[in-house]
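Worked problem 6 (solution included).
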Amino acid sequence: MALTDRAIGEIKAMIQAGDLQPGDRLPPEGELSERLGLSRSSLREAVKALEAMRVLDVRRGDGTYVTSLEPRLLLEAMSFVLDFHQSHAVLEVFEVRRILETSSAALAADHATPEQVAGLRESLAASRAASDIEDLVEHDRDFHARIADSTGNGYLAGLLGTVSDKTVRARIWRGLTQDRAVDKTLAEHEAIIAAIETGNSELARALMLVHVAGVEDWLHANVDDSTGQVAEPESVEPESAEPDEPEGADGTGLEGAGVSGHRAR
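Solution. The predicted structure is:
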């Protein structure tokens, strides 16, 4: 085992044993290197690596501290990896999202509090009032994040947040180009909330599967086979002053859903 790897393992063991708690400051470099029987250079390399993993926080002129070790923080490294792959593996990312989202909805139905359900309804209301597609997708991200938080599983919520962030661009293009995508999304959110509120985990799982799979179906039809990237529209024309709006599930058009300024094609 390389000395740096050994140093990483030793610091990790100290955290796991409780010798170092979240927020604790590491002993001075000389003291720690002597304690672990490692050179200062090996220890420095280990600290750099653990800082990149968000396990340690190096504060210049102050010292090195253990971070909060919260799941979302530790999972940031995954975001870095996905940045390298999303351009040609967006469908695979969506497959992972589908697996996580369906489980998240089912767990939320089992664990969500009345206050959390009320928060989901607030998120849906904000989506209906969205001024454009980009705003709508931001509220969509909030909606799914709230469901994940309702599960009580911080690691699941962290994984979902990381994966979901890598699908935003595709979701925006779908909203801009697919007929009635906005109305469909809002209606599906409403149904998912109802299933979570009644504690019907299997129905929540099934509704979420349909919801996420709808975006996947659109992607399969719009991914360029030669590049693996989403075929994006060259331009999006603004709506005319008196647009012919498609009816939504509640009898309203896109304006009634709160989204304006773009024509879904």
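Discussion: Confidence is low (pLDDT under 50) at residues 233-265.
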